[in-house]
Each structure stands twice: as structure tokens, then as C-alpha cells.
Amino acid sequence: MNKPHLIASLLAIAPSFLLAATPILAESPCIFTGRLMDAEHVAFDTNRVASLAAYDASGKKIAAAKTFFRANSRRNYALTVPMASAPVDGAASPGAVVSVEVTEPNGAVWTGVVVDSDATLGGPGSVKEVDIVLAKCTNNAYGLDDSLYDDLYWAWRYSQYYKPGETFDPTKDHDGDGVSTRSEALSGTNPFDSADKLEIVFYKSEKSDSGSGAGENGELAFTASPGRAYSLEAATSLDNPQWEKVEFLNEGSSVPVNYISVPATAGGRTPTVYLLPKRGKQAFYRVKAE
Ligand SMILES: [Ca+2]
What we know:
Blueprint: H1 3-20, E1 26-34, E2 36-37, E3 51-55, E4 61-66, E5 77-84, E6 99-103, E7 109-114, E8 127-129, E9 132-133, H2 146-157, H3 181-187, E10 200-204, E11 218-222, E12 229-235, E13 244-246, E14 248-250, E15 259-261, E16 272-275, E17 284-289
Parallel strand pairs: 1-8, 2-9
Antiparallel strand pairs: 1-5, 3-4, 3-6, 6-7, 10-11, 11-16, 12-13, 12-15, 12-17, 14-16
The protein binds calcium ion (CA).
């Protein structure tokens, strides 16, 4: 006898519930992609895998990824964040703030890493490119982070270049190869080995494209360290030079790139890159370790 009453009350409640609810639509995910590096700006990759997890403002984990290596790409991670048109469990909504937790291969965990100052999720299906460098530089005197400074100090202390009573100064060129210890540390070469440094070892000038489209690629080869990425900068003059990042071609490819990555497993090598035809009279190039 009670059943008809129960059905009647459900019918009375249902319409008001439906009116109050916001329809939530699943949307295509927003992808954070970029480059994850340690304090020495060495990128993680498939040989030194770091894990990333994305959290929404309430601390709920909404995405996870691992670093990878891809030839001819500076990117080494892609966090695919599920999206919904309105806040809902397990997905973010447009405009939400995202923080990232990074677990390094050695187990160190970095929590609450804000991936960007405006790391709000844009429209569904959007792609954001965000670099992440772990650990801040705290040794401002030399522009080196404390752990790298410490490593350098002890490497110097036990090197043949140590002189008792001398204060360690990373701006000095201890091994006398023309590159300061600080620069070598940042570019991933050994500051206490005069045979190891980042340098351009071969250069062939490109032919100018005088508007005819008949320019010819130049060539440039440099020493590279495993696990590092390199970019190329050019200036038209060395008198108060304005260095600008330029695109170049990799061996066997006609697609211009900004970076070249050297796998962590690679031995010592000297990659050759091809310079795009320039229009100006002259250009100076420099290789920059990322
Ligand atoms: Ca040196």
C-alpha cells in the first residue's frame, strides 16, 4: 500500500534536481608539454626517467607522465590533463590552476612545482609548452646552485689544479683550456680536464641568399656532452653583439629545429648541424648548452 506514495514523492523531487544540476561535458584534454631539467639544466629522458604528476587546486591528482627522449625534439614530457566543462572529480576545468609534483630518478620529490606563472588551463584541447627547472640557483655570486658549487669545490679540491691557501673561484679557468670552470660546469664539460670543453671544431660558411633563393647551407660541428641539448645563436656583429637564437638543420633532415639533443647513452661525439642560408653580409655563431 505504501508503494504509490513513494513513487509520487520521487516524481516531485526529480524535476527540481534536474533544474539545479549543471550539465558537465567531457572535453578533449589539455596537454602540458615541455622540458624537465635538473638544477644543472640537464634534461631528464628515457635513460634518467623522472615522473611528473599534475594536481588540481584541491590537491587531487589528475594526470601523470614520465620523461622521454625524442630525437630532434627539445620536449621531454607531455602531461595530458583530462578536462571537463565544469569542476568534477578526476578532471580539470578551463581556468583551473595546476601544480606538478616531480619525482627524480634518485627518489627526490619536488612537490607543488607551479609549472608556469599563468599555469591556468586554457580551453580544452589546448597545448601549453612549459619548461621546468628543478632547484633554484641560490649561490647568486656565481650563478650556480649550491649543490653544483659544492660538487665543483670538491672536484677542484682533489684536482691537480688545487693550490693550498687559494680560495676557490669558479670564474677562473682552472685547467687553462680557455673556458671558465663555471661555464664548463654549466655546459656539462669537465672543468679540470683541459681536453674537454664545449667548442666549435669545424665551420664552413654558408653562401648568402641574395634574394634569388639560391643560398647554400653552411656547416658547423661542435663537441657535445651526452645527455645535453644545444641551441645555436647568431649575431651580425661582434661589436656589442645581439645574439639571437636561430633555427638550423640536423643531419639528414630538412625540417628546421631550435635544439639538438644528445642522448645520455651517447659517447663523446661532435654533431654537425647545417646552417640555413642567411641574408645579411656576415654572421657569427655560437653554440649554447641548454
Ligand atoms: Ca676550463
